[in-house]
């Protein structure tokens, strides 16, 4: 039996304001008219909506690209709704095929447990832990059993499943698709049934799975959830999505000085997109900043404000203050307060070999290229001689703007 959203509640100014907050930075909100009805009902009855975000703990830590959807959860949480942080400990054992052209290897129960604990600890830096419901989908997925799994699978067709983009491409490319991969979207959709969710959030790559939740809720006689997809955040390069494999990311557990410096390294254009997706400043405040920059204010001022906000979120105001001072010190050619300590032997040692052994350059040839470009300093002096050999002693070695090491060289 299909259910629909009750419509007999007024759309007040508060409902309209909540809708605008919901829409900030989103890729899609579907169906929008149903979400307005849900917001109106919640406003009129005082019963908060149930808002679900499911994350499979496939890695032990997260970067700020992962927090885009968490930020949206926090905005909705601050409107008074009940957010549910769902840890996919059961679905992690299947492996999400979204966006994959190969079968994703499943995780062990031990890996899932360790990753899940770290995930939630980091997510709590964005969400209010006191107002967050934490659930694990093994709660209802394990008891489902073989009979329940077959009954669930009967509620969706293979033809509909093959409409999914990654399955469609793999099938026509002659690449294998394991039967258990069909279970993943079914199980994610069943999570919405178990939690009676009103809204499910996810990245744009999760749209098929989120729509599955709507379909299965209708199959089970529930009011269908709305879905909200957030865009994938571009990384530091402003081109590819943020990814550890592309080394264009900022980890939320990175040192505050590193985080602050990386935030200041983004382009002026990318800064405004990051403001929309990562900042908790109002859109009106951001618009004022944009107009000031357009009128001649240094865009670095706006970038510093963003860097301070994000660094404060994950490390506190004192650490953000220190990181800003550290960055200013580096900009003036100074040495950061905390740098790596490296002990090497073999003095006298050529500068190229020293840079490689101190992990300041990936190879001697790259070290030589950096020297040619004027990017290497020893004790604040630019190195121009690739044949330089350093004797025993302690040196502060700098490569580029952000790489430093205090190298103690022995014979």
Description of the structure:
This protein has 411 residues and is of the alpha/beta class. It has three domains: 13-230, Rossmann fold (3-Layer(aba) Sandwich), CATH 3.40.50.620; 256-331, Orthogonal Bundle (Tyrosyl-Transfer RNA Synthetase); 340-410, Structural Genomics Hypothetical 15.5 Kd Protein In mrcA-pckA Intergenic Region, Chain A. Helix content is 46%, strand content 15%. The protein has helices at 13-23, 32-45, 67-78, 109-123, 138-153, 158-161, 165-172, 179-195, 207-219, 256-264, 268-278, 283-294, 299-315, 317-331, 351-357, 364-372, and strands at residues 28-30, 50-55, 82-87, 132-136, 199-203, 226-230, 340-345, 349-350, 376-378, 381-382, 389-390, 393-399, 403-410. The strands form three sheets. Strands 1-6-5-2-3-4 form a six-stranded mixed β-sheet, with helices on both faces. It has a five-stranded mixed β-sheet with strand order 7-13-12-9-10. Helix 5 (138-153) packs across helix 8, helix 10 (256-264) packs antiparallel against helix 13 (299-315) and helix 10 packs across helix 14. The protein is globular, with a radius of gyration of 26 Å. The model has no long low-confidence stretch (mean pLDDT 87).
Note the main attributes of this structure.
Rossmann fold, 16 helices, 3 domains, alpha/beta, 411 residues, Structural Genomics Hypothetical 15.5 Kd Protein In mrcA-pckA Intergenic Region, Chain A, Tyrosyl-Transfer RNA Synthetase, five-stranded mixed beta sheet, six-stranded mixed beta sheet
